[in-house]
Amino acid sequence: MFMAKLPATIFVGFIFFILGSQWAFAQNGPNLGVLAASEEIVAWDISISPDGNGLPEGSGTAVGGKSIYMEKCLVCHGQEGSGLLNDRLAGGHGTLDGPAPIKTVGSYWPYATTIFDYVRRAMPYLQPQTLSNEEVYALTAYLLFLNGIIGEDEAMDAQTLPRVKMPNRDNFILAYPGEK
Amino acid sequence: MPESKKNIPMEEVAGNGLLHRRVFLSQGAALISAGSFNLLTARPASAQTTVDIPPWMKVPGAGMSGYGSRAAHEDYIQRNPVSALGTTGSGGSRTPLQSLEGMITPSALHFERHHSGIPDINPDDHRLLIHGMVDRPLIFTMDALSRYPMVSRIHFIECSGNSRVGFNIEPALGSCGDLHGLVSCSEWTGVSLAILLEEAGIDPRAQWVLAEGADAAVMSRSVPVEKIMDDALLALYQNGERLRPDNGYPIRLLLPGYEGNISVKWLRRIKVTAEPTMTRDETSKYTDLRQDGKSLIFTFPMEVKSVITSPSPGLSMSGSGLYEISGLAWSGSGKIIAVEVSADGGRSWARAALSEPVLSKAMTRFRMAWRWNGGDAVIKSRAIDESGAIQPSRDQLLEEKGTKFNYHYNGIQSWRVASDGEVVNVYG
To answer: Are A141 and A152 in contact (CB under 8 A)?
Structure first.
């Protein structure tokens, strides 16, 4: 499947040469990918997984999050996440099995890490990727607090956030690859 | 004697005037002049004839142009953009299915669904990063990607929120495109993602990849490695030209048959992982809430489905006579093997003709000859795919999946044709 080593001359000019790594190349393509530097990867890799992998340093509480929310989120998401122009972010607990389900961060989302990931990448809608990591932790804590999931002074950071269990966590059924 | 030359009887093959599917093919002009072949009209046209030479024959026509445009008379055929309050780019626009023919959607009318508008990407500055559980994290420029071997495939893309109005208690008003236009079909050309992952050296323990776009929402979805290795394409071209910005210029991921949102546009990053990342757009959205309050997550393939595009609301019938019922069928599980049509509200059904080519995970055009007697009629279509799946009635679907599902609606669409020729959406 893979070809053996390629002449090193092709890589003259590249400073990244990982000792001991096996240079193997795809047979079906011209092999034009350039090795990515670790700084590049760190800068690009903004996704957070449910186990907390990818969470940066920093921390924040709901108290701090509230003032950021009032300034940067209120106009679209309303007082205490009650919804305005855009999605409601709090409440709706216990409505999912009834006739009028209300899906919010608190009533529906299975993982708290998703709040950090999403708010950091996409919000506030008109100025995405402008929040500091501290601000995102604080806003995440505020949304969790509004939903009665954590206390007002509980700090969210890379250790505590993945440990938060969302109320609807166990109500998701994997259609792929299927339940084991 | 080839079947097409045989004399096909004009008898009904199903109730209320459905004729053999080969009627148009076999008897063509003779039949049409014997009967009256009527046209569906969106706009009433003057039937006046004239002996005058038309003005466009009396002066030389317009010159050539660098990039063509459609006839001004067709400009009324539009997508209908709708966005969330306070935004211009979080929303969608639907393909006007009722105004199109064949199986390919013109690129300019391909449906849109964006989460934070269409980014204005300079291809010279765009990069694709592949990293995570790979031996060599790699960056590709657009120039580099253009040198890889390319493949072309015709596939539909359907948003899993398409036809959502079918969950409404009362039938929604609107054209076929308003109700079902979050589906389109194109020829996509690009590079197989498997080749690039092979080049990066994928860890055999990897089960998922995260695909991320370069829009302001940095929209991201987790995709099974199994699907990537099977048929994932990095599409660079749509219908022969570079992707349009609203379809992911300069690269979109194309996952044939899967719900549209996962075919991430403006692709910038592929991260190979052991587990799904559980992004907002695969948890908060694009999950299917069941009646009991539990939700299905990762419901990827779009189900077998069909809709009659003509006649349909807005295309009124002009008097009794012979019509062609025309529609589209598709399935995320493979080829369409049959489409059945009913003109008597589902009491009797007959097989429609399928226009070639019939391709896997592509739209298939079906046609059926119908002699409308001018009376009230309910017409509907149901598709069957090669996995044996049969498109369910709305009642069956809601019975099986509940009323809160919100995605993946594939119930049979019924149109009521009233005696005045107007067509409306009805249930049952």
So the answer is: no
Nearest to B367 by CA among B41, B26, B96, B25: B25
Average pLDDT over residues A123-145: 98
Contact B345, B428 (CB under 8 A): yes
User: What is the value of ipTM here, to two decimals?
Assistant: 0.91
Pair of tokens at residue B393: 């009635």
Nearest to B414 by CA among B352, B318, B347, B361: B347
Residue B301, classed as helix, strand or coil, is strand
Percent of chain B with pLDDT over 70: 92
A121 neighbourhood in chain B, CB within 8 Å: 217-218, 220
The pTM (predicted TM-score) of the whole model is: 0.92
pLDDT higher than threshold 70 for residue A12? no
How far apart CA B63 and CA B129 sit, in angstroms, is: 45
Query: What chain B residue is nearest to A176 in terms of C-alpha separation?
Result: B298
Q: What is the DSSP string of A119-176?
A: HHHH-STTSTT-S-HHHHHHHHHHHHHHTTSS-TTPPEETTTGGGPBPTTGGGEEE-S
The DSSP H or E segment spanning B1 is none
- Give yes or no for A93 touching B (CB within 8 A): no
Q: Domain B1-38+287-428, what fold?
A: Immunoglobulin-like (2.60.40)
Alpha carbons A68 and A62: distance in angstroms, whole number: 10
Closest among A114, A140, A133 to B220, alpha carbons compared: A114
Q: What is the mean pLDDT of residues B111-115?
A: 98
Element at B179 (helix H, strand E): helix B176-180
CA neighbor of B254 nearest in space, from B186, B328, B329: B186
Spatial CA neighbour of A93 closest among B279, B287, B293:
B293
Query: Are B116 and A125 a contacting pair at CB < 8 A?
Result: yes
Kindly state the helix (H) or strand (E) to which residue B208 belongs, with its residue range: strand B208-213
Domain boundaries, chain B: 1-38+287-428, 112-281
pLDDT of B23 strictly over 80: no
For chain A, what are the domain ranges? 56-165
Which of A124, A125, A123, A119 has its CA nearest to residue A144?
A: A119
Quickly state the pLDDT bin for B4 (edges 50, 70, 90): very low
**CATH code that applies to domain B112-281:** 3.90.420.10
Model confidence band, residue B155 (pLDDT cutoffs 50, 70, 90): very high
Q: What's the pLDDT score for residue B5?
A: 43
Type of residue at B335: K
CATH class, domain A56-165, is: mainly alpha
- Tell whether B277 lies on the interface with A, counting CB pairs under 8 A: yes
User: How far apart, in whole angstroms, are the C-alpha atoms of residue A82 and residue A92?
Assistant: 10
Q: How far apart are the first and last CA of chain A?
A: 32
pLDDT score at B46: 61
Distance between CA atoms of residues A54 and A67, nearest Å: 26
Q: Residue B229 CA to chain centroid, in angstroms?
A: 24
Is there a contact between B280 and A117 if contact means CB atoms under 8 Å apart?
Answer: yes
